[in-house]
Design a protein that fits this description.
Blueprint (H helix, E strand, L loop, with lengths): L12 E2 L2 E4 L6 H7 L5 H4 L8 H17 L3 E7 L5 E8 L5 E8 L8 H13 L7 E6 L4 H9 L3 E5 L4 E2 L4 E2 L2 E6 L1
Parallel strand pairs: 5-6
Antiparallel strand pairs: 1-2, 2-3, 3-4, 4-5, 6-10, 7-10, 8-9
Helix pairs in contact: 1-3
Length: 179
Amino acid sequence: MTRPLALPDPPPASGEVFLRAFTSADIAMVRDLATDPYVPHIGTLPAHADTTQALEYIERQWARLAAGTGYSFCVALRETGQAVGQAGLWTSGAQVASAGYAIAPEYRGHGYAAHALRALSGFGWTLPDLDRIELHIEPWNAPSLRTAEVAGFRADGTMPHPRHTGAEPVEMLLYAVGR
């Protein structure tokens, strides 16, 4: 059985953002995130989520910690605590973790994703068994590729098995950073 995980205290931070637990006050940001046509294809947030669906998404993030499957953070602005996105680290008890992030459309273009990814990686290095953090990015997703590179990740090939992000299989680019 996997043991429950706990978010770090103090919360990881970089630049203008810090990573904290989701709260029910983050529903508006989650609903904004659900307007992105791509985000529902890669996670558990329904497209154009209503208030109930947004709250259920937040509850799933809490459940990931309780189940020990990974760390799901709300990306928030340091100055105000305003939620701007989500970042997660999925460890599976291995030496290699998978990371992901999404910034709500309203808050894009300010470098928050790169700062969130730096904060997430910094937190990852506090986990004693972790040696490598990977990102799986679609080749067409130029903003995410730039974010990965700005945050210190480097291209490391392609995924050997295509990942499904909807109806069509998509070959993913593998970006990684090591301890």
